[in-house]
Amino acid sequence: MVTERDLGSAGIPHIDANYALAQHSSTAPIEDAGAIVRSDALIQELEQADVVVIGTPMHNLAMPSVLKAWIDHIVRARRTFTIGPKGKVGTLRDRPVFVAIASGGRFSGERARQPDFLTPWLTAILGMIGLHDLTFFSVQGTGLGADALEDAWLNARAAMGDRFAIPVRAASR
User: Where do runs of H (alpha helix) occur along the chain?
Assistant: First the structure.
C-alpha cells in the first residue's frame, strides 16, 4: 500500500499556541485537541511506512513552509522523541528515507553558488526522531536554462543509479 501526502495542495496548518497547549497541558480545552489529533494522524502515517520519500524544492536556501509544518507536527516530545540525560532520542523505527531536492541554483559540487541549509537540517531533525537511513538526491540548476536542466536530470539519474526506474526525459516534462 502506498500512502501519498501532497503537502502543496492538501495544506497542513502550522502549529500554533493551541497546539502547544494541547501537547503540554492535561487541562487543554477540547477544541484544542484538533491539533494533536492531526499530529497523531501524521505520526501514525509515518510509523506505518516501510519507506519514506520526500520530494521538495529548495526555497531560499531551505525548505518550503509546508514541509516545515509537516515536520513540526511529526517531531513531538514524548511521542517521536524523548528527552533524557543524553539529550533527545528518537522513538521511531529507522527505515529508508529518500529525499529528492529540486533547486533553481546549485548548492553542492564545485559549481555551487549558494549554501545548503536544507540537507543538514533534515538530517538532524529526522535523526532526532530516529530516522537515520537517509539518501539525498538533487536536481540542481533548474533555473539556469534548458541545457542546465537536462544536465541536472542526468546527474540526478546517475546519482540514483539503478535504484529507481525514472526515464530522464519523462521526468523532466
Answer: 7-10, 17-24, 33-48, 65-74, 118-128, 146-160, 168-171
Helix 33-48 to helix 17-24 angle (10° resolution) is: 80
The answer to whether position 64 is within a domain reads yes
Cell of 137: 538526491
**Which of 143, 162, 69 lies closest to 102 in space, CA to CA?**
143
The answer to whether the pTM exceeds 0.90 is no
Instruction: Tell me what pLDDT residue 5 has.
Output: 74
pLDDT along the chain (173 residues), means of 10: 70 78 61 75 94 92 92 92 94 95 85 89 97 91 78 71 48 36
Residue 85 and residue 25: Cα distance in Å, rounded? Answer: 23
Q: Please report the pLDDT score of residue 169 as a whole number.
A: 38
C-alpha count within 13 angstroms, C-beta hemisphere, residue 146: 2
Q: What backbone phi and psi angles, to 5 degrees, belong to 99?
A: -120, 115
Joined together, the cell numbers standing for residue 114 give 549558494
Query: Residue 97: which domain range?
Result: 50-171
Which CATH number fits the domain that encloses residue 115?
3.40.50.360
